[in-house]
Every structure is written in structure tokens, then in C-alpha cells.
Design a protein that fits this description.
Radius of gyration: 27 Å
Shape: flat
Number of strands: 0
Structural class: mainly alpha
Mean pLDDT: 82
Number of helices: 16
Largest sheet: none
Distance between the termini: 65 Å
Number of domains: 4
Strand content: under 5%
Low-confidence stretches: none
Helix content: 40-55%
């Protein structure tokens, strides 16, 4: 006989009287034997079938939403809103997030969520770095990062206190100084963003002329030959690995 459960609204109303704070506490409650039989232990599966389930925060009454289920604002909109909050530094951002005042559609960790558009905390918060006394050169900054094993913007953002005179937003500071090259260069990983890499490629016409010369020289006749030549270093870096993708809008039939 099919078990009859309470409606979602009735089940939610009862569950919220328990004042449970997490899924883990709900599971422990279900194991305790105190749960009424007409409330399903696997509530998401049961109530999703009739379209009444939203999320655990709604069901338990905590208001929390899993990161994977959040619909964040676009970077520009999030930045515009955050700048109205007048938060001065990354250090001030953390207690603000913990206060619970941050809207659900703005991520707690914006560098990770907006990694493609991210240019640093000063850019996001709308504050320009203050005048720095005796700031290091970019090479000195890079040497320090390598000495402590920092290889990404995310790792750098976790360092609350930087050495005296070191800019918290190196991208903005050294970009303005004209010494910034790329994140891969700065962190010593060698990684280059797709945007930076695309700037180094030849135009479609120039690349095609160069490739035809290389094809004749190395007897490149198909995709497998091309991949082999690329791996062997016979194709210059200013010609993309997958030209059909990079030049897709410019290719001629």
C-alpha cells in the first residue's frame, strides 16, 4: 500500500517548529525515531514530484540556499550593488558576509564565482589603493610570492596581512605602472588567460599563409599530423592549437 504523506506546506510547518539548522541535523532527527511517519525522510525526492520542493533552507526555515542552487547577479550588477555598501577592504568584507546582510544573489567568494571578470578587490569594492610608501617592484613582489608558495589570486586573497608597502590589488597597481603582463607571469605558473593568449595570435590571413608553408615543410596533411607537429614544437605560439575554433568567425568556406 502506498504511504500517504502530509502536504509539503504541512510538513514544512511542522519541521520548522524543530528549529533544525542543517541537513545533518535533519538526518540525525530522522534516525532518532521521533519523526512522524507521514513526513518523508527523503523530503526533496517526495515533494519534487509534485513541484512543491524548493530547497533545504526553505524547508527547515533557515533561509540558506546551496551555492550550486544560487542564481547570482552578473558581475557588473553585483559590483555596482556592492559599491553602494561602502565596504573599504577585503578584510572588512569577511565580517560583513558573516553578519548575514549579504543578499543571496551575491556570492560570498566573488573572486571564485567571477574569476573570468575578476580584477581585484579594489575594482570590485570601488576603492583605489592608497598611496604606498616604498612599494616593491613587480619582480620583488613575484619573488616574495614564490618564496611562500602562493600561485593564484585565490591563495593571495587569503593572506590577511601583507608585508608593509605591498599592494593588496597587484593587478590594478602594476597595470597602472605598466609592468603587469599576465596572471601566469605574476604567479609563476606560466598560465595565460584565453583573452591574453588570443591577443598574441596572428590574424586569420597571416596565420593561413604561415600554416601553408609549415604544412609543406613538415608534410602536415591532416589533424593528426597537425597535433603531432604542435606537440613537437614545430608550430609557433602565435598560431593557435585549434585554429578552427579561434578563427571560426573568420574562416572562409
Amino acid at each position: 500500500m502506498k504511504k500517504e504523506f502530509r502536504s509539503f506546506a504541512e510538513a514544512r510547518k511542522f519541521v520548522q517548529t524543530l528549529r533544525l539548522k542543517s541537513i545533518e541535523e535533519w538526518k540525525e532527527y530522522c534516525k532518532s525515531g521521533k519523526k512522524p511517519n507521514d513526513i518523508p525522510a527523503n523530503s526533496p525526492q517526495t515533494y519534487k514530484k509534485n513541484g512543491t520542493w524548493t530547497n533545504w533552507g526553505d524547508f527547515l526555515g533557515t533561509g540558506r540556499v546551496a551555492n550550486k542552487d544560487r542564481n547570482y547577479l552578473k558581475f557588473q550588477d553585483a559590483r555596482e550593488f556592492v559599491q553602494t555598501l561602502k565596504i573599504k577592504t577585503q578584510t572588512d568584507w569577511r565580517p560583513f558576509v558573516k553578519s548575514g546582510k549579504l543578499p543571496n544573489n551575491i556570492p560570498r567568494d566573488p573572486p571564485t564565482v567571477y574569476k573570468e571578470e575578476w580584477k581585484g578587490w579594489s575594482d570590485f569594492l570601488g576603492n583605489r589603493p592608497r598611496y604606498l610608501k616604498n612599494p616593491p617592484t613587480i619582480e620583488e613582489y613575484k619573488e616574495w610570492l614564490q618564496s611562500i608558495g602562493v600561485k593564484s589570486l585565490k591563495e593571495l586573497s587569503k593572506i590577511i596581512k601583507l608585508p608593509k608597502g605591498y599592494p593588496k590589488d597587484p593587478y590594478y597597481y602594476y597595470k597602472k605602472q605598466g609592468t603587469w603582463k599576465s596572471y601566469g607571469d605574476f604567479y609563476g605558473t606560466g598560465n595565460i588567460s584565453p583573452q591574453e593568449r588570443s591577443k598574441r595570435f596572428l590574424s586569420f590571413e597571416d596565420a593561413r599563409k604561415e600554416v601553408r608553408v609549415l604544412a609543406a615543410k613538415y608534410k602536415i596533411k591532416n589533424w593528426d599530423d597537425w597535433k603531432k607537429a604542435k606537440k613537437e614544437g614545430k608550430i609557433p605560439d602565435n598560431i593557435p592549437w585549434a585554429p578552427n575554433t579561434v578563427y571560426s568567425r573568420k574562416r572562409k568556406k
